[in-house]
């Protein structure tokens, strides 16, 4: 993770945020995991004298964080960009109330959607919510801005957003660390009804307060050295910030710059100074024309999205292309490359517990309303057994809507949701299904952990982030309590019974739930049992095992007499789940140990 | 220390140890006194996808990502991945690739499906503007008697392409591998380093 040299460390942006928070005396951190934010909380939890916890979703995390701030505790809340949407309700009003202990919300945005369903730019959310936002360009900024954000939060009585992007969160750059302050933990909650009970009469003056605060912050933003003017060339000035600064600064080393560390409130005076100093000013920023519009609102003549793409993440090449369009760089030649190299789409792991239930869903040819997690990968070949995915918890609601409106259903209808996602926001959807008296089936794929983001604990795990034993909430108890009358628990390594149980649930006239349960093949421990092998002389090349999409199974290159591909199993990857054994019609797949016996 | 930034790109398949290798390289160049930035994509990569890591070092590094066609040394853990990224190597640069072949899991052949290349490193030559140095990591590992040495062999090969003192590398390997395996790893490192010298000769 980090290497020392002259008291400087090479740190990921996420680690740098954890360090910055610790140095600021942050005591309490709460989050829901989501790429690219997930590593901040575990890094913070390792520091002595602090407390960190996962919450079941981002809204709860922000509400817990507000509670901690109300006692006077310095509090860090982290989530991915779309998580902030879930947390908007408390956030939009907390910005009226203001804080007691410093409150910093990290929004980890994902331009290019490396691991997300959209690429929204949360600088816009910060402005909408009337909260100041920092936008770091590297790990040092991430560290420094986080530390400063706690002071700004308390000084201006506001929650503060630190908005990072994937290439800051998951890039390692050098950081000089500072001293740790004593963690700030409050004595007790102090009542202050006019500020913390946001009913209309109390909320109206708080809105006025928030507007004045924005003006005060604007003044601060114009004075802060983190919004940095570098005045050299009189010809070209660049307004930029976040990761984009690095690219444009490398490509135009001689231009003048306004490097914006706080996009909102926008340091308009400094932007004006740049525009007065330079003949021409362009804005280079990822995603939305945020800085560009802020500059234009105050009447500055700048150009930006005219040249710089609004979609996807920036890099040296995309910025170079934009600068060529703007007439600021010479065009460089396009490089020839290998035409089509074999694709490697992500697949469910060898031994993945989700595979068995998808094989069954494929068999019954269900319309599958999907959700967010590893199991979304079943949308891709060869399984192709998931047909919607919008946001956390959407599967059950989507399924209710189609059920209530389909006049001529073509397929059985099933919603698939993971355990973590069910705790996050599936419970209310299931309540709606039951109380709508609907004949739908919900499959809860339960691998006991939040796997896609790296194996974080959830409400069903029974252990918290600090390593304490905590109550594990059983999904079947929730399901039963919500009024579901038909519940089956399937072992997904047993294909025949899983299929029979799925059919039974689909046939049941009412809301039914299948809990498809098996531990994750990767977390908390990588599964490793005795691997299986394919007997070349028995394999008939039928491809049934290929169709289950296991990364341990591949074409051996050998052919049957009919010219069909004979399968092989990579013994290092095989976990011995035996699903391929169950679909092989000629019993060509046997334990490796058994074959060795036969040979011996 | 010269002012030029050196660009190293490490490519492979999820689970091969690309990120670990890039961490060791970073530790080495930090120890040697360079500014360094590194970027890779987490998340879906551990599920069998293509993994790339960009490492840039020099007196001051700005962008954490390497521009197209400017990789000084590319280290490929897998031959088809070397082919996929060969065009990124700068003229005069170096592509060091394991000859290991990892075909992705394949279902029944679909129309227009791209097959695993027969001679990936041969095909890479067409697009690579630098030298290609194949390393038979499987054979070397077998000779050394341990199948898990490909990572260290490749780092040895990489070290031959970079201007960092060999002693910094060996000190870092001593520090980062399990104590019992130090000698074996140092031997693997040397074999990788020699392979490049042999290929150059």
Can you tell me about this structure?
- The complex is a heterodimer of chains A (600) and B (201).
- With 600 residues, chain A is an alpha/beta fold.
- Chain A has four domains: 4-223, 3-Layer(aba) Sandwich (Rossmann fold), CATH 3.40.50; 228-325, 3-Layer(aba) Sandwich (Rossmann fold); 354-517, Rossmann fold, CATH 3.40.50; 532-599, Alpha-Beta Plaits (2-Layer Sandwich), CATH 3.30.70.
- Chain A contains 21 helices and 22 strands.
- In chain A, the strands form six sheets. Chain A has a six-stranded parallel beta sheet.
- In chain A, strand 17 (486-491), helix 19 (495-507) and strand 18 form a beta-alpha-beta unit.
- Chain B has one domain (7-101, 121-200): Pyruvate-ferredoxin Oxidoreductase, domain 3 (3-Layer(aba) Sandwich).
- Helices cover 38% and strands 22% of the residues of chain B.
- Chain B has seven helices and six strands; from the N terminus they run E-H-E-E-E-H-E-H-E-H-H-H-H.
- Chain B has a six-stranded mixed beta sheet, sandwiched between helices.
- The longest helix of chain B has 19 residues, at 182-200.
- The two termini of chain B are 28 Å apart.
- The mean pLDDT of chain B is 90.
- Strand 9 of chain A pairs antiparallel with strand 2 of chain B, so a sheet runs across the interface.
């Amino acid at each position: 993770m980090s290497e020392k040299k002259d008291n400087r460390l090479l740190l990921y942006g996420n680690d740098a945020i954890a360090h910055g928070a610790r140095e600021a005396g942050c005591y309490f951190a709460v989050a829901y995991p989501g790429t690219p934010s997930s590593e901040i909380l575990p890094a913070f939890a390792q520091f002595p004298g602090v407390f960190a916890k996962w919450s079941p979703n981002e809204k709860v995390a922000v509400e817990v964080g507000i509670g901690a701030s109300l006692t006077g505790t310095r509090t860090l809340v982290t989530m991915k960009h779309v998580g902030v949407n879930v947390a908007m309700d408390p956030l939009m009003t907390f910005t009226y109330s203001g804080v007691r202990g410093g409150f910093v919300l990290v929004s980890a945005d994902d331009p290019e959607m490396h691991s997300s369903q959209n690429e929204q730019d949360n600088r816009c959310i910060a402005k909408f919510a009337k909260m100041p936002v920092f936008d770091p360009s590297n790990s040092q900024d991430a560290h420094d801005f986080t530390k400063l954000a706690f002071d700004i939060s308390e000084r201006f009585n506001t929650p503060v957003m630190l908005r990072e992007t994937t290439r800051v969160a998951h890039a390692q750059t050098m950081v000089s660390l500072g001293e740790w302050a004593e963690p700030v933990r409050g004595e007790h909650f102090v009542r202050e009804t006019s500020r913390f009970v946001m009913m209309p009469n109390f909320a109206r003056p708080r809105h006025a307060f928030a507007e004045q605060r924005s003006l005060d912050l604007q003044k601060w933003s114009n004075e802060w050295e983190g919004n940095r003017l570098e005045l050299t060339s009189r010809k070209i000035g660049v307004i930029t910030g976040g990761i984009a600064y690095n690219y444009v600064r490398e490509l135009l080393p001689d231009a003048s710059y306004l490097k914006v560390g706080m996009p909102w409130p926008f340091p308009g005076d400094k932007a004006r100074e740049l525009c007065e100093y330079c003949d021409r000013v362009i804005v280079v920023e990822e995603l939305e024309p945020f800085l560009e519009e802020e500059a234009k609102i105050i009447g500055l003549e700048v150009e930006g999205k005219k040249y710089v793409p609004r979609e996807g993440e920036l890099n040296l090449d995309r910025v170079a292309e934009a600068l060529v369009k703007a007439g600021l760089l010479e065009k460089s030649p396009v490089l020839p490359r290998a035409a089509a190299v074999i694709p490697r789409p992500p697949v469910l792991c060898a031994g993945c517990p989700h595979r068995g239930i998808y094989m069954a869903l494929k068999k019954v040819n269900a319309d599958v309303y999907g959700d967010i997690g590893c199991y979304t990968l079943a949308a891709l070949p060869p399984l192709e057994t998931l047909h919607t995915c919008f946001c956390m918890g959407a599967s059950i609601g989507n399924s209710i809507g189609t059920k209530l409106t389909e006049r001529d259903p073509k397929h059985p209808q099933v919603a698939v949701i993971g355990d973590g996602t069910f705790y996050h926001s599936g419970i209310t959807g299931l309540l709606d299904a039951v109380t709508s008296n609907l004949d739908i089936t919900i499959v809860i794929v339960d691998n006991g952990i939040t796997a896609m983001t790296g194996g974080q604990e959830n409400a069903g795990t029974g252990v918290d982030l600090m390593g304490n034993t905590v109550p594990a909430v059983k999904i079947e108890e929730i399901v039963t309590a919500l009024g579901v009358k038909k519940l089956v628990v399937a072992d997904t390594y047993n294909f025949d019974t899983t299929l029979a149980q799925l059919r039974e649930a689909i046939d049941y006239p009412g809301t039914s739930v299948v809990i498809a349960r098996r531990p994750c093949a990767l977390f908390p421990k990588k599964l490793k049992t005795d691997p299986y092998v394919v007997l070349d002389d028995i394999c008939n090349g039928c491809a049934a095992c290929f169709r289950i999409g296991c990364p341990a199974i591949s074409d051996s290159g050998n052919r049957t007499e009919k010219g069909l591909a004979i399968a092989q199993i990579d013994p290092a990857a095989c976990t011995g789940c035996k699903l391929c054994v169950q679909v092989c019609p000629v019993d060509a797949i046997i334990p490796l140990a058994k074959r060795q016996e036969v040979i011996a | 220390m010269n002012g030029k930034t050196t660009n190293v790109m490490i490519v492979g398949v999820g689970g091969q140890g690309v990120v670990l290798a890039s961490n060791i390289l970073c530790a080495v160049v930090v120890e040697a006194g360079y500014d360094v930035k590194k970027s890779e994509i987490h998340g879906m990569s551990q599920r069998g996808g293509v993994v790339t890591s960009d490492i840039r070092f020099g007196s001051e590094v700005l962008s954490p990502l390497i521009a197209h066609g400017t990789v000084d040394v590319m280290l490929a853990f897998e031959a088809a991945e070397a082919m996929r990224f060969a065009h990124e190597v700068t003229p005069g640069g170096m592509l060091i690739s394991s000859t290991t072949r990892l075909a992705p899991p394949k279902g029944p052949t679909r129309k227009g499906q791209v097959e695993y290349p027969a001679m990936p490193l041969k095909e890479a030559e067409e697009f690579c503007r630098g030298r290609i140095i194949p390393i038979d990591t499987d054979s070397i590992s077998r000779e050394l008697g341990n199948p898990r040495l490909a990572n260290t062999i490749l780092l040895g090969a990489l070290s031959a392409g970079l201007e960092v003192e060999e002693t910094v590398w060996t000190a870092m390997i001593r520090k980062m591998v399990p104590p019992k395996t130090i000698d074996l790893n140092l031997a693997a490192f040397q074999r990788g380093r020699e392979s490049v010298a042999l290929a150059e000769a």
